[in-house]
Amino acid sequence: MQLESTLTCPECRHQESETMPTDACLWFYDCKGCGAQLRPKPGDCCVFCSYGSVPCPPIQAGRSTCA
Asked: Is 4 or 24 the better-scoring residue by pLDDT?
């Protein structure tokens, strides 16, 4: 399981590597480039699934949603 994901802001394209939590979903993330608050796209369970280079741990483990 990969726990490092690079989030890419859809507003300014800033990229930041973050360690994903294994025990919770991350529904909000503040871009360190422009300050935009990222939220999951419709149908995604968290910001890593929407904007990350790697989906969140629950999705990697084959579950359909975050815990």
From this structure: 4
